[in-house]
Design brief:
The complex is a heterodimer of chains A (112) and B (114). Chain A has 112 residues and is mainly β. Chain A is built from no helices and 12 strands. The chains are: A mainly beta (112), B mainly beta (114). At the A-B interface, β5, β6 and β11 of A face β4, β5, β9 and β10 of B.
């Protein structure tokens, strides 16, 4: 079965600093990979997704992620964090083209 | 308004009672999903449906029942609620399985079982 690991439960960064959230997956074939964000009390919003092609994908809100097959990773990055980015972030892999398997999530705190 | 809605948004019930959580989407998406979100586990798939009258188990189906008589509705029933089913439940829908098909999530239902 596929699995997704987000090694960091909590991350705290200063406003304006760069951000990298880690995601590792286990899957035999080329996966479909996703990053979702969840603000407190809200549902999940898609930030970006990777299906094929260019391994660096751009998303909304200034986020990007890079697919590295050799490391089975799909890390999320942002060059300059804003206070409004404080939320919980979930990495997910698409299983068999119709189901998502999620990581446990990383809670981002932004300090001013 | 178009989108995916869930009701109720908050529910408190007692152990042993039957509870039904409702999910409605206005896009006519083929696929619909139910997840539960628990601290430290992320979201785990309970059941999903590829079309009306087609449902299948996910990772954690025990204690839950689903039905899908209409494309737009996908209710989730806890036949005899237990404390371990206290969680936040998310419904989602997706048009298909292609690269352009994104899974969209509802706002969630927070269920407390006393």
């Amino acid at each position: 079965a596929q699995s997704v690991t987000q090694p960091d439960i909590h991350i705290t960064v200063s406003e304006g600093a760069s951000l990298e959230l880690r995601c590792n997956y286990s899957y035999g074939a080329t996966p479909y990979l996703f990053w979702y964000v969840q603000s407190p009390g809200q549902g999940l919003q898609l930030l970006l997704k990777y299906f094929s092609g260019d391994t660096l994908v751009q998303g909304i809100k200034g986020f990007e992620a890079e697919f590295k097959r050799s490391q089975s990773s799909f890390n999320l990055r942002k060059p300059s964090v804003h206070w409004s980015d404080a939320a919980e972030y979930f990495c997910a892999v698409d299983e068999y083209g119709n189901k998502l398997v999620f990581g446990a999530g990383t809670i981002l705190r932004v300090k001013s | 308004d178009a989108g995916i809605t869930q009701s109720p948004r908050y529910k408190i019930t007692e152990t042993g009672r039957q509870v039904t959580l409702m999910c409605h989407q206005t896009w006519s998406h083929s696929y619909m999903f139910w997840y539960r979100q628990d601290l430290g586990h992320g979201l785990r798939l309970i059941y999903y449906s590829a079309a009306a009258d087609i449902t299948d188990k996910g990772e954690v189906p025990d204690g839950y029942v689903v039905s899908r008589s209409k494309t737009e509705n996908f209710p989730l029933t806890l036949e005899s609620a237990t404390r371990s089913q206290t969680s936040v439940y998310f419904c989602a829908s997706r048009a298909g399985t292609g690269e352009t098909d994104t899974q969209y999530f509802g706002p969630g239902t927070r269920l407390t079982v006393l």
